[in-house]
Amino acid sequence: MTDVMVFTDLDGxxxxxxxxxxxxALPALEALAQAGIRVSxxxxxxxxxxMPLVAQLKLEGPIIAENGAIIAYADGTIDSAGHIDDIRExxxxxxxxxxxxxxxxGDMSVTxxxxxxxxxxxxxxxxxxxxxxxxxxxxxxxxxDTDLLADKGFYIIRGGRFYHLIPRRDKAEAIMxxxxxxxxxxxxxxxxGDGPNDVSMLLAADRGALICNPHLQVTAQLxxxxxxxxxxxxxxxxxxxxxFTFLAEKKT
Length: 252
Ligand SMILES: [Mg+2]
Prior knowledge:
The chain is of the alpha/beta class. Helices cover 33% and strands 22% of the residues. The protein folds into two domains: 3-79 and 170-251, HAD superfamily/HAD-like (Rossmann fold); 84-167, Threonyl-tRNA Synthetase, Chain A, domain 2, CATH 3.30.980.20. α1 packs parallel to α9 (235-251) and α5 crosses α6. It is globular. The chain starts with a strand and ends with a helix. The structure holds magnesium ion. The site of magnesium ion has 8 residues, from loops.
């Protein structure tokens, strides 16, 4: 029988966008555990933020943090696509007017991160522990040029709350690295997410679910040929809806 690996975004997907609650997803997580299907978190969050949650939910798959820039395996191996110091250094090479429009986590106090994310100070401290990517707010005109720092090897993607300056490895590429490490030829990938930064991994998966998020207009970005499952419910309820749909498909 084909092995399945589930890769999921957190905020707005497995976790409620506002409250970070996940209760509505628990029955689906239990069903996956019973089917012996491992779940990997793929998030813009840091490893420090994801680890307690993964332990709490007993998720056994490798952790993909910071939008793919960091992969953490169960044996303690860390596969990092870049280093935060290089990214912050690259930011400072931008023309003054552009640099002034960018406010990265490195430019903020923990209190500011806390206010912007709605996380308490303890959680915000973990969120600020960046290893290989920098979330930022943009106060310039329109949207920032995604290739602003391409010559330095970094590019910009849009997440749910922030833009992210990341090394050249996105969520989809990180998943492919995990699959390659897995040494199993016949693995089916299910991926779930709600943001523009999830689209590449959803389209690369064998079965992808776009979790409904009224704050984001992601469906407009999808190619007309996509076969993603679009959930009716938002957040963890939509997550459970997609997982139960995929589990039912697998049985037939
Ligand atoms: Mg999200």
